[in-house]
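Give me the fold.
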Amino acid sequence: MPDFLIYALMAGLALALVAGPLGSFVVWRRMAYFGDTLSHSALLGIALGILLDINLTLAVTLGCVLLAVLLVALQHKQWLASDTLLGILAHSSLSLGLVVLALTDNVRVDLMAYLFGDLLAIGREDLYWMLGGLVIVMVLLTLLWRRLLSVTVHEELARVEGLPVTAIRLALMLLIAIVIAVAMKIVGVLLITSLLIIPPAAAQRHARTPEQMAMGASVLGCLAVMGGLAMSWNLDTPAGPSIVVCAALFFMLAVSVPRRA
């Protein structure tokens, strides 16, 4: 196998393994719109990274993290409903990112690569960045798993039991922010949320426990990555959208198979 295909496969599989359990919380807590908001803010991070001449992956990560912290702070004030805040932040950050890009002189940016991903263009340095970020997320997610489940199942009961609900909610949002920043290189800004939602949604139908759903989502995500790369290699289609198409096919298959009694 060519080196670039090996790098793409390793990056895609690593992302799928992390996106499975993390995406399960996105599905359980109905946070799909939050993922969209962070993915839009990723474009603002790209623009600021180019403007300030810093590493784009680092810039996107910082941008997503700052937006997650801002959202939690605004939700705590309870001035507006969460979906209203998400709509304001999503469109504002996307528009601001496009304006900043337009103001940068003598800089040519391939927006298609950032919007739809360029998995086959991942190099060794990109792979190291991604693996480092994903390992950190997986370790933290493992340590926080029980607390996250408690807050997800019954937030008020978790608060009565003494759990720091706000801090745990913020931690979940920060983990999602890091994954979205890392995944931008693979599936692009517009398709990141799909990879976080579709495999867990497919696994949810046949899972009996949260752990089964998380593991099933990771397996389906890995299969989607391998299938998408095979489709891209043989049919000359974009790698990121091909992965999402394979994930959607697995979802349709999961829906069509009757649930076990």
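The chain has one domain: 1-188.
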